[in-house]
Design a protein that fits this description.
- This protein is an alpha/beta fold.
- It folds into 2 domains: 159 residues, NAD(P)-binding Rossmann-like Domain (Rossmann fold); 118 residues, N-(1-d-carboxylethyl)-l-norvaline Dehydrogenase, domain 2 (Orthogonal Bundle).
- Helix 1 packs parallel to helix 6, helix 8 crosses helix 11 and helix 8 crosses helix 12.
- It is globular, with a radius of gyration of 20 Å.
Length: 287
């Protein structure tokens, strides 16, 4: 069992840290909203720290799950000087590949291991300990030591390449999801307009080539106009901005992704910043 610090206790980080505690690791948590850290301690025991530096003192592994590049730089900037040489920083934030490579260089200079390790599976995956973790690391030995700790909340952990490769793979993941959700939105809206029974449609086409996680878990809620759960539109827009910026950097074309990002901007303008990403269907039913 390891001494672990977990920085960031949002809808993903809180459950992930909980799995670490249940697995028997010694966990110290930090959250920028102290009440959330205290609530986590009340639920799981262990300890909370008032700042990142105190949280990471003596930690063998520091797991971080915050909001965006700015948050990563801010929190890691406070944590890294207090980390011991030989410790490992694992960043689960969905951020840019650039910030991952920056952190890798900073960690290497300090004798600290680094893994960029964004996750897929959403809040349910975090709560059930069934996340897919895509990793970038410059040292396979460092990655190997982190795997048993990450395993507390993962269904799959894969080393995709050097630092930044985990974040780039997460971009691929988000590009796929955006396209599937838009297609599913159009399909659901079309089926309803045609007078079909959505339950029957999902049960039928879900046994064929149209099968997907989104079809199984979002088609019925789309049809019902239920969006108060899941992965928020504002988070998806943050992720798609990262995808589009990286595509521009490497010369890749993402015309459909760019269009869907504009659709999400329209959803946000209707007050749907915190709606689930499946709310794309709202635009089709309410032009």
């Amino acid at each position: 069992m390891a001494r672990v610090a977990f920085l960031g206790l949002g809808v993903m980080g809180g459950p992930m840290a909980g799995h670490l505690a249940r697995a028997g690791h010694t966990v110290t948590v930090f959250n920028r909203t102290p009440a959330r850290a205290q609530a986590w301690v009340a639920a799981h025991g262990q300890a909370a720290a008032g700042n990142p530096a105190d949280a990471v003192t003596n930690a063998e592994f520091v797991m971080m799950c915050v909001g965006n590049d700015h948050d990563v730089r801010e929190v890691s900037g406070l944590a890294l000087p207090a980390m011991a040489a030989g410790a490992t920083l694992v960043d689960h934030t969905t951020a840019s590949a650039d910030v991952a490579r920056e952190l890798a260089a900073q960690c290497a200079a300090a004798g600290i291991g680094f893994v960029d390790a964004p996750v897929s599976g959403g809040q349910a995956g975090a709560e059930n300990g069934q996340l897919t973790v895509m990793c970038g690391c410059d040292d396979e030995a460092v990655f190997a030591t982190a795997v048993p700790v990450i395993d507390a909340y993962a269904r799959q952990i894969t080393l995709m390449g050097p630092a930044g490769a985990g974040q780039t793979t997460k971009m691929v993941n988000q590009i796929c999801i955006a396209g599937v959700v838009q297609g599913l939105s159009e399909a659901v809206a079309f089926a309803q307009q045609a007078g079909l029974d959505i339950d029957a449609v999902v049960d039928t086409i879900g046994k064929g080539a149209a099968a997907s996680w989104q079809l199984d878990n979002r088609a019925r809620t789309m049809a019902a106009g239920e969006f108060d759960f899941g992965f928020a539109v504002e988070w998806m827009r943050k992720d798609l901005a990262i995808c589009l910026a990286e595509a521009e950097r490497i010369g890749a074309r993402l015309p459909v992704t760019a269009l869907i990002d504009q659709f999400y901007a329209q959803v946000a303008a209707r007050g749907g910043q915190r709606w689930d990403t499946s709310s794309l269907v709202h635009l089709l039913r309410n032009p």
